Amino acid sequence: MNHEMSYGEDYRELPLTSLRSGEVTQEAEGVWCQAVHIVNVAYIQATDSADWVLVDAGMPGSADAIIRATEEVFGTDARPSSILLTHGHFDHVGAVIELVEHWQVPVYAHAQELPFLTGKQGYAPADTAAGGGLVPAMAVLFPNEPIDLKHAVQVLPTDGSVPGLKDWRWIHTPGHTAGHISLFRERDGVLIAGDAFVTVKQESIYHVITQELEFSGPPRYFTADWAAARRSVEALAELQPAIAICGHGRASSGQELTAGLSELSAHFDKIALPPYIKNTH
Known about the structure:
Blueprint: H1 3-7, E1 24-28, E2 31-36, E3 39-45, E4 52-55, H2 63-74, E5 82-84, H3 90-93, H4 96-103, E6 107-109, H5 114-117, H6 135-138, E7 153-155, E8 161-162, E9 165-172, E10 181-185, E11 190-194, H7 205-210, H8 226-238, E12 243-246, E13 252-253, H9 254-266, H10 268-272
Helix pairs in contact: 8-9
């Protein structure tokens, strides 16, 4: 399958590059975040070895930027032990086929994401009536077809463990997609939330570009189940994370994170829902 050809070109003309694009920051011990256009990827180093894992694979066309960043952080010819996907939307798997071919490493995802990663099923079309800004109206151009990782993709262990990262666990946080997961390191409260919640108003082009911090629910235009999304936010808030890296927006920590996530959890329906949905209860 030709990954680049399958996605088409129309959406690439949209003004969806943030002011943070290309930025690589260390957010916690052994944890780095890289902004790639409008989305974040993360690098996690194991505590007991030199091994490391890539979390998500950015936008289509971002493989070179990701490879350059990994070599800056981990050294020339650095290669992860695996790639872990929070979910299969195009802006989180955009470079995964190229990266697998380059590194020859396995990919892990939740079982419910496999149809979208093995060419069997596409996601529902974007919700262009989701409101909150111009991005939902333009999201009709965003790819929703599956990719095909063939035998490279494997199902995450059912016990919540993360291959290669013994002090992390994965948490099923459905809503944005059925098989969406987040990652949590309990000893210091580091959370990688994927798109279970984000720290930028992803529906607004202005906020996407400026990256103004705002705690928000999952991107409205691609969220499948709002009741499940609310429960996932509530579950993550109960963890009381000290640091959060989301799929979109800046990393957050301390009181800023505590207050923002608490407010989102308590008032999820008011903050997160598209205008035509009244509540999730």
